[in-house]
């Protein structure tokens, strides 16, 4: 029996959860990198642990939840239409979420960030894949997001490979700018679905 006849198609994709989770995380991580704070305790270790918690729960759990939700809705219970671009979305949210669990735990335990230079290479590739996929499907707002992610991982590679404060600040700037775009996407998706608006998303 055709599964599409069992499960009705849903237009309510959980994208806003992933967009807003990563947006909040990027505001926290990027803002702290650019402004070097604020830190009320004055303890760099305590600040790292706080940044780690935001990375684990917003960057990690929020995105992974969205990715799993989408993947299940595309495979086990096929309820999402427009599956081709949504598959790329599910892959991206899942992998970015998992990698933020690692980064968050690394920051929380104050472990060595150097090996993340190697992580930045395939994550840059995933971002490039997303850019090509969404641009090719005519979804320019999503492609812009992945261009921002490419810039983040380019800066991440430089910061982790050279321990450069300039590259670290550049990465923070790209995180903040991408966080602003993610917030717009979360706003647009939510308003379009919940209020019948027509934001460019």
Helix content: over 70%
Q: How many angstroms separate the termini?
A: 35 Å
Shape, principal axes of CA atoms: globular
Largest sheet: none
Backbone CA Rg: 17 Å
Contiguous low-pLDDT stretches (5 residues minimum) are none
Briefly note the structural class of the backbone. mainly alpha
Number of continuous helical runs? 6
List its traits:
201 residues; mainly alpha; 76% helix
In short:
By secondary structure, this protein is mostly helical. Helices cover about 75% and strands about 0% of the residues.
Question: What can you see in these coordinates?
Answer:
The protein is mainly alpha-helical. 76% of the residues lie in helices and 0% in strands. Helix 1 runs antiparallel to helix 2. The longest helix is centred in the N-terminal third of the chain and has 31 residues. The protein is globular and about 55 Å long. The mean pLDDT is 95.
Question: Could you give the topology of this structure?
Answer:
Layout: H1 15-35, H2 44-74, H3 83-108, H4 116-136, H5 140-162, H6 165-195
